[in-house]
Write a structure and sequence with these properties.
Blueprint lengths: L3 E5 L4 H13 L4 E8 L2 E9 L14 E3 L4 H14 L9 H4 L13 H5 L20 H10 L16 H14 L3 H12 L4 E3 L9 E2 L18 H7 L12 H5 L7 E3 L1 H13 L2 E2 L2 E2 L3 H7 L4 E4 L6 E4 L4 E2 L12 E4 L5 E5 L4 E7 L10 H13 L1
Parallel strand pairs: 4-6
Antiparallel strand pairs: 1-3, 2-3, 2-15, 4-7, 5-7, 8-9, 10-11, 11-12, 12-13, 13-14, 14-15
Helix pairs in contact: 1-12, 2-6, 2-11, 5-6
C-alpha cells in the first residue's frame, strides 16, 4: 500500500482515488498532484518514494526535474516582462541582440522564437550535452547559425535550444537571466518553491528521475529529419543525465526546472484567474491574452503531432489538458505537466520521478485529468 498524504477537498475525492490508482496500476513510484482555485487549495497530495527500492518517502517539499514543463515557467517570465513594458512579443529579437540577426534571422520576432518557429531547434554541428551547460556559448552558436527552415513558415519544437535562446535574449532585454528572474521574482517575491538550475544546498530534497533502460530522446522520433536530429538526437539525451550535478546546476530554462507540483499549480492558478500570488500580481488580463494568443497551428516538424503554440505556452489540443479549449500550459518528457484552465478558474500540476514512455496520452495524466473534470 502506498501512503498518500496531503489535503483533498471531498469534492475531489475522485482525484485522490485516481492518484492512488496510479501507484497500483500504472507503476507510479513517487509523485505529487496539486490543484488551486486562485489562492484556494483544492488538492495537494503526495505519496510514494524517491527511490526504486522504496526506502525514502516522497515528502511534502520534494523537488524533481520536470523537463519541458519548465518551458511554461519561462513563458510566464516573458509575460511578466511584457506586462512591465520591458519588451513586446512583436519586437524583433535582433533589436535586443544584434548578433542574432545573422544568416537570415533579422526578422524573427520574440513571439516567433517562443512559438518554435525560428528554425533553431538544435545544434547543426556534432554536440555533447555539456554544450548546453554554458548558456552564453550555446546562445552565441545559435545566434550565428542559419535556420533549418525559413522562420515563420512552420513550428519545430526547440526541445533544449529554446532555453539558451530565451535566457540570453531575456538577459539582454530585462537585465537578468531566466534563472535569476525565477529566483528573484517567482521564488523570492512570490514564495513559489521552484528553481531553474538547482542550488547545491537543495539537492537533498530532490528526487532522482527513474527511467526505463536505454530510454533516451532518440526513442521519441520515429523518422529522423534534419530538424528532429538537431532537436532530439544531437546530442542524444539520456534521461538519467538529469540526476547529475552538472545538469541540475546548469541554466537550462527549457528543461531543468526543479519544483513542487504545489508551486506550479499556484502559478497556473494565478494565470487562470489573472490573480495574485501571496499578494503579488502576476500579469494583467490584457498581457495574458497576448501571451496565450495562438501564433501557429499544425503538425509540429519535430514532435510530429498537432500543436497549437502561443508565446511559450502549449495551447490545449486534442484535450491534452481536459475538455476546455481555452486551457494552456506545458508538459515535460516522461509525464509531468502544468496548466491553467481560465474557464474553470483552476491551475493544475503533476510531478513524478518515474518517467513514462508516452509522448502524449500518459495513462497517469489521463486518469488524473479525467477525475478532475468529473469533479468540477
Amino acid at each position: 500500500m502506498t501512503n498518500i498524504e496531503g489535503f483533498c477537498d471531498p469534492k475531489f475525492d475522485a482525484v485522490k482515488a485516481a492518484f492512488e490508482s496510479n501507484f497500483k496500476s500504472h507503476g507510479e513510484i513517487g509523485a505529487s498532484v496539486s490543484i488551486f482555485d486562485g489562492a484556494n487549495c483544492l488538492v495537494d497530495l503526495w505519496g510514494g518514494h524517491l527511490d526504486t527500492e522504496r526506502t525514502k518517502p516522497w515528502q511534502k517539499d520534494s523537488l524533481v526535474n520536470v523537463w519541458s514543463t519548465t518551458k511554461g515557467v519561462t513563458a510566464v517570465c516573458y509575460a511578466m516582462a511584457v506586462d512591465r513594458g520591458v519588451l513586446r512579443y512583436e519586437d524583433r529579437v535582433a533589436d535586443y541582440w544584434p548578433e542574432f540577426g545573422a544568416a537570415g534571422k533579422q526578422d524573427i520576432t520574440i513571439a516567433m522564437l517562443l512559438s518554435h518557429q525560428g528554425g533553431l531547434c538544435g545544434f547543426r554541428q556534432p554536440a555533447v550535452i555539456d554544450d548546453y551547460y554554458d548558456v552564453e556559448a550555446a546562445a552565441a552558436t545559435f545566434a550565428a547559425a542559419e535556420p533549418i527552415w525559413t522562420p515563420g513558415t512552420q513550428s519545430g519544437y526547440h526541445a533544449i535550444s529554446i532555453g539558451a535562446l530565451a535566457s540570453a535574449l531575456f538577459k539582454r532585454a530585462e537585465g537578468r537571466y531566466i534563472r535569476e528572474f525565477v529566483a528573484d521574482e517567482l521564488q523570492g517575491r512570490m514564495g513559489l518553491d521552484m528553481f531553474v538550475g538547482l542550488p547545491g544546498d537543495e539537492e537533498g530534497r530532490c528526487a532522482p528521475l527513474i527511467a526505463p533502460p536505454e530510454f533516451s530522446s532518440e526513442s521519441t522520433a520515429v523518422e529522423f529529419t534534419e530538424a528532429q536530429i538537431a532537436a532530439l538526437v544531437n546530442p542524444p539525451m539520456n534521461a538519467l543525465v538529469a540526476n547529475t550535478p552538472a545538469w541540475r546546476s546548469a541554466e537550462i530554462p527549457s528543461a531543468n526546472g526543479h519544483m513542487t507540483a504545489r508551486a506550479l499549480a499556484k502559478l497556473y492558478a494565478a494565470l487562470a484567474t489573472a490573480g495574485e500570488i501571496n499578494g503579488q500580481r502576476l500579469i494583467s488580463q490584457e498581457t495574458q491574452a497576448k501571451a496565450t494568443n495562438m501564433q501557429i497551428q499544425g503538425v509540429d516538424a519535430v514532435l510530429g503531432i498537432d500543436a497549437r503554440w502561443a508565446c511559450g505556452f502549449l495551447l490545449n489540443t486534442n484535450e491534452l489538458y481536459g475538455p476546455q479549449s481555452q486551457s494552456f500550459g506545458h508538459s515535460g518528457w516522461g509525464g509531468s505537466f502544468g496548466f491553467a484552465d481560465p474557464k474553470s478558474g483552476i491551475g493544475v500540476a503533476y510531478t513524478m520521478n518515474r518517467m513514462g514512455t508516452d509522448l502524449v496520452g500518459d495513462p497517469r495524466n489521463m486518469a488524473l485529468i479525467a477525475a478532475i473534470y468529473a469533479s468540477l
